[in-house]
Write a structure and sequence with these properties.
single chain, alpha/beta, DHBP synthase, Rossmann fold, 2 domains, eleven-stranded mixed β-sheet, five-stranded parallel β-sheet, binds threonylcarbamoyladenylate, binds magnesium ion
Amino acid sequence: MVKLIRVDPLSPRREDIEEAARIIRAGGLVAFPTETVYGLGADAFNEEASTRIFKVKGRPADNPLIVHVSSVDMALNIGELPDHVVDIAKRVWPGPITFVAKKKAELPRAVTAGLPTVALRCPAHPVALRLIEEAGTPIAAPSANKAGKPSPTEASHVLEDLGDSIDVLLDAGRTFFGVESTIVDVTKEPPVLLRPGPFTLEELRSLFGEVVVPSFAKGLGEADVALAPGMKYRHYAPEKPLVLVEFDLKLAVDIAHEKGLKVAVLCMHDKCVEGDVVLKVGADLYEIAKNLYDSLRKIDRTNADVAIAPTVPEQGIGLAIMNRLRKASGYRIARSAEDLRRLL
Ligand code: TXA
Ligand code: MG
């Protein structure tokens, strides 16, 4: 059974961090908050512990983990970053950005899924940073959800998915951004955006100049999926169908009703109409990102037959929101009333 430890997100108690760090060093699994989502951590150099992560999550073995570090120096022991990327890392870390680099250290096969590269990230959450420092070892951690489910943005989500099979859960309340880190492959020149996140494409371009954005990173299709192994799996999806609606939401609700379906409406920005159930996601892009996964989890607890959501502008963190919404909808996107009649 999991040991739940409540910690203050900004100044966790020393003995709580020490206890969790001991579990990591002993080969246990610790779920911990980051500024993006909760992670499920193990000592990145422990083969057995990192293999257990895959089992507990039900994660396919070909989907590698992100290795979390507490400094640029720790990252440089594990991966090779070109000099200009080291300079950038020093400016943006700790922060919600992951670099895919050439692997240097001998890591367990499970962690990198046998790839010659490794994903490195230094999280900007006091609890995560102190845990890595105290453990004295990099921590391999995917998001702490069952494979396919939305990532956990609060401790109750972790308990719901993995409560029976992990050792410790550090509960620091809700995470700050709510969507996973931006992933950039810096083994390529120009670098390639593998997953949009809170560190925006606009910011990336101001640092790197050119950045390549494959269509799948925008969430536009399943092409090029081999680049980031994790992007090809069904993700973030509620059990009930979710349709993205690019036209008048009120008309969309009427169409669902014509078909005898109860509708849950995800309200975003000022796009909100009455449905059988209304889930308020947020009034601005940051609030939408923060609440998105909790709202997706809530869809399944409503009595609705189908959920509909508007689209958001693909600027700033909006690119990440649309990437996740497209996946969560299984690419069911209705541009017109006819589209929706066909999809329902
Ligand atoms: O914000 C985050 O990044 C969170 C927190 C816990 O840090 N972690 C997270 O991990 O989202 P996960 O495992 O859910 O997603 C990691 C993604 C997967 O899509 C995986 O395929 C990709 O990173 N990845 C890992 N190593 C890679 C590599 N060497 N090359 C390309 N993609 C890689
Ligand atoms: Mg994940």
